Amino acid sequence: MYERILLPTDGSQGNTPAVEQAIGLAAETGATLHVLFVVEDIPYAPEMMDGEIEAKLRQIGEDAMEEIRERADDAGVEIETAIEDGTPHRSILAYADDEDADLIVMGTHGRSGLDRYLLGSVTERVVRGAEIPVLTVRVSDGDV
C-alpha cells in the first residue's frame, strides 16, 4: 500500500501522535519512513537569521530526528532523515515530490479563528497543495 511515508516534524513534543501514526503505518506496510525538518527562512527579518540561530534550529531538528529514529528502530522501520532550508509547506511538498512519497503524515495543532489566521497553518497548506494523501493527526493544545 505505502512504500515511502513522509513525516515532517517541527521538533515539538506535540508532534508525538503523528510520529506514532507514521511509525505504525510504516511498520504495517513495510514502508520507509522519511523524516523531514525544515529550517524556516524568515523573509521579514533575514538579518536575524545569523549563524547561531540557524545552528540552534538545526540542532532542534537533529534532536527530533534522533528521537524518531530510536522509535522507528524499536518498531523495525527503515528511516531516512533530512534537514532542508526554506518555507516549510513548500519544502515539504517539494521533498514529497522529489522522494516520490505515497503519504504525508502531519500533526495539527488544533488552532482556529484568529490564531490560525495570524499564524497560518503549515499542515493546511500542505493538504491544499499535496498531490498525494495527507493524514492529519490532531494534537490538542494541551499536548503542545
* Unreliable runs: none
- Main sheet specs: 5 strands, parallel
User: Would you tell me the structural class of the helices and strands?
Assistant: alpha/beta
- Please tally the β strands and state the result: 5
> What gross morphology would you assign?
globular
Q: Ends: how far apart?
A: 31 Å
Instruction: Estimate what percentage of residues fall within beta strands.
Output: 15-25%
| Global mean pLDDT | 87
Q: How helix-rich are the residues, as a percent range? A: 40-55%
Task: Give the assembly state of these chains.
Answer: single chain
Topology:
Layout: E1 4-9, H1 16-29, E2 32-40, H2 51-74, E3 79-86, H3 88-98, E4 103-108, H4 113-119, H5 122-129, E5 134-138
Parallel strand pairs: 1-2, 1-4, 2-3, 4-5
